[in-house]
Amino acid sequence: MSYEFLHRPPTPAEHRLLAESVGWGHGFAWDAMPASLAASFAGVVVLREGGPVAMGRVVGDGAYYFYVQDVAVMPGHQHAGLGRRIVEHLVAEVERVAPPKAFIGLFATDQAVGLYESHGFAQHPGMTGMFRVVPAAEPAVSS
Fold this sequence. Notes:
This protein is α+β, with helices and mostly antiparallel strands. The protein has a single domain (3-117), classed as 3-Layer(aba) Sandwich (Aminopeptidase), CATH 3.40.630. It is 26% helix and 23% strand. The protein is built from 4 helices and 5 strands. It has helices at residues 12-21, 33-38, 82-97, 113-117; strands at 3-6, 42-48, 51-60, 65-73, 103-105. Strand 3 and strand 4 form a beta hairpin. 23% of the residues are buried. InterPro entries: Acyl_CoA_acyltransferase, GNAT_dom, NSI-like. This is GNAT family N-acetyltransferase. Keywords: Acyltransferase, Transferase.
């Protein structure tokens, strides 16, 4: 059976299943994901036999700044070209609407660097990618 590509962001359940399958389960505030996914600029979900096996999406302002996010392929389906096809679709969606010099950024795992480089992504001299995570709220202390 072949893969089916759906051009939409993942549902919260699909996102969680795929994120957990690649070891990213600890990296999300799951209660915030429905709103986050709904605000995606573009997305791709890949199905096999009716179940999700891969995903990716683009977030950003939809006009000039775009970020490839959450590209994940279940371990049993990696090395089948799914990540490449997801990134191709996401970049094409951005290029369809973005003006010249628009920014497409991402953070890559060490294993995915080659995939993104093959699509023209590169580190640039004089620039360093950085990020900050909002800390968890301190538990309330009752008196």
